[in-house]
Amino acid sequence: MSSVDVKGVSKTFPQTRSGTATRAVDDVTLHVPNGSLTAVLGPSGCGKTTLLRLIAGFLVPDSGTIAFDDRVVAGQGRPVPPQARRVGYVPQEGALFPHLDVAGNIGFGLAKASRRPGADVSERVLEMLDLVELPREFATRAPHELSGGQQQRVALARALAPSPSIVLLDEPFSSLDAALRESTGRAVARALRVAGATGLLVTHDQSEALSLSDQVAVLREGRLIQAGSPADVYMAPQDPELARFVGGASAVPGRAVSSGLSATCALGTVRLTAAPSADDLVLVLRPDQVVLVDDGVEAEVAEVSFYGHDAAVRLSLVGQHTALVARVPGPTAPTVGDVVRVGVRGAVHAYPAPVRD
Ligand SMILES: Nc1ncnc2c1ncn2[C@@H]1O[C@H](COP(=O)(O)OP(=O)(O)OP(=O)(O)O)[C@@H](O)[C@H]1O
């Protein structure tokens, strides 16, 4: 096990023939505690893979340092090469060697530098199959005889077999369908915990990040916007854009009430989670905070997405240019064109409104 400390790391790709230089990672500082799993979350192109490749040693930072515990691996003197970093890497898909069976794939790293004298490769292969919760009989199967989720578990088993201190996973579930994605994700997180490895998981899927990790690190345009526990990132997002990205939210203009922890907005007076730092505010309403009530403000139903157990209802406040999303139990969902009444449940997060020129 090792902690990972990224300090002030930047990486710019030089100008390509077709465009300008890209600052893919911009002054990122991130601490990943020993034995924990951190999800690196952000939209496509925000620099997630580049950050992972810098930690793996496939890329060298332009500035800043990367350390595993107290051992600086990049940024001071000659960078430590990837093979000497004791890092396991699980790429997106198609990662298995098609000409080797499952045992050959899992034992691949062991057959090289990291094999301990006298260690039994086949015993380790079986241990690894147990760890990733696959039947031992799979050892003799070819990769094409496995499902996508099983293949990703084998890829993890291969990464874990040489007992790396750190495991880096680059969108390992992106090719799997929703149900398989969830079960494979949970199995992978369990295996990492049992192996005691420190993990970094790149994903653009906010529910995957929130449900699997101990810490969520959110990147936007190469910069680290927020790092915290899943609950912190969901309950106290750094800005309204992050609230929309993680969990979804409606942003409504509001005005602080001088007497304390409340604000007025198109939905009436609402309670705030903390004293506001400005008079003009942006109030962030989570879909589960927007509720259909008997005595609220009138809104017209613009769109309904039915998910079974619940439904997302897009609403437009009557006579106002305010759009809202409410999450209601599936069986109670209204239909498009209905006029309903809405209110706000619980305290809402407020941010200073952007200053207009
Ligand atoms: N080798 C490269 N040369 C030039 N630009 C690159 C290179 N690799 C990445 N980039 C650019 O750096 C930025 C960050 O890319 P990166 O792959 O790290 O993003 P990402 O968040 O992992 O995206 P995705 O989720 O789509 O995989 C992008 O604008 C990308 O075009």
Helical element count?
A: 8
Portion in strands:
35-45%
- How is the main sheet built? 6 strands, mixed
Instruction: State the fourth-level CATH superfamily of the largest domain.
Output: P-loop containing nucleotide triphosphate hydrolases
Shape: globular
Level-1 CATH class name of the largest domain: Alpha Beta
At the third CATH level, what is the topology name of the largest domain?
A: Rossmann fold
**H/E element sequence:** EEEHEEEHHHEHEHEEHHEEEEEEEEE
Radius of gyration: 24 Å
Number of spatially distinct domains: 2
Strand numbers in spatial order across the main sheet: 6-7-8-3-9-10
**Termini separation:** 51 Å
Structural category is alpha+beta
CATH architecture of the largest domain: 3-Layer(aba) Sandwich
Which small molecules are bound? adenosine-5'-triphosphate
Helix content: 10-25%
Looking at how many chains there are and whether they match, the oligomeric state comes to single chain
> How many β-strand stretches?
19
Low-confidence stretches: none
Task: Put the structure in a nutshell.
The chain is an alpha+beta fold and 357 residues long. The chain has helices at 48-56, 102-106, 121-131, 148-160, 178-195, 206-212, 230-235, 240-245; strands spanning 4-13, 22-32, 37-41, 63-68, 71-74, 87-90, 166-170, 198-203, 215-220, 223-228, 250-256, 262-265, 268-271, 280-285, 290-306, 310-317, 323-329, 339-344, 349-352.
